[in-house]
Amino acid sequence: MPPVARIPAEALKDAIMGGKYPFWYPQKARGLAIDYFVYGTDFTPLALSATATQGIQINSDSAFLILSATMVETDTGNTVFFANRPLLVNLSTGGASLNLSNTPIHADNWFGSAEEPKYWDVPKTLLPNTTLNVQLQNLEAVARNVRVAFHGFKIFSFPPS
Known about the structure:
The chain is mainly β. The chain has one domain (33-156): Jelly Rolls (Sandwich). The protein contains one helix and nine strands, in the order αβββββββββ. It has one helix at 9-17; strands spanning 33-46, 51-57, 63-74, 87-93, 98-99, 105-106, 118-126, 131-138, 144-156. The strands form two sheets. Strands 2, 4, 5, 6 and 8 form a five-stranded antiparallel β-sheet that branches. Strands 1-9-3-7 form a four-stranded antiparallel β-sheet, with no helix packed on it. The longest helix is centred in the N-terminal third of the chain and has 9 residues, at 9-17. The chain is elongated. The mean pLDDT is 87.
């Protein structure tokens, strides 16, 4: 399988400022100001064999376009990093809980590492004042610290000052 083409943030920004948009870029956002941003949340700790949910509130001043996601998992003392993430993930948006998958799926399907982020096949646009809910289920009988981050762009309807 050939490697997935990655669009560096600066190249994407240059293309957007030049009026060239990828097919997935929201039609109504074209021509608006953008700014790189990261939304994240922490599960510190995620208890052994537990399920927990954290909500990430998208700011009211801008929409957010998720390009990639990362996850860092450590022991509860933050001294050992783990590559194997025995976690199930369910992502949903809004008060109506619109799920992004039909069932909780393994963390590696959504998240990459800090060294190699997981670029989403089609970026996800979140409207202002939307809540992105992240639910994790720890499949191990060991408590862990889990930190997740969603990397992308804020989309403003006015130039930021």
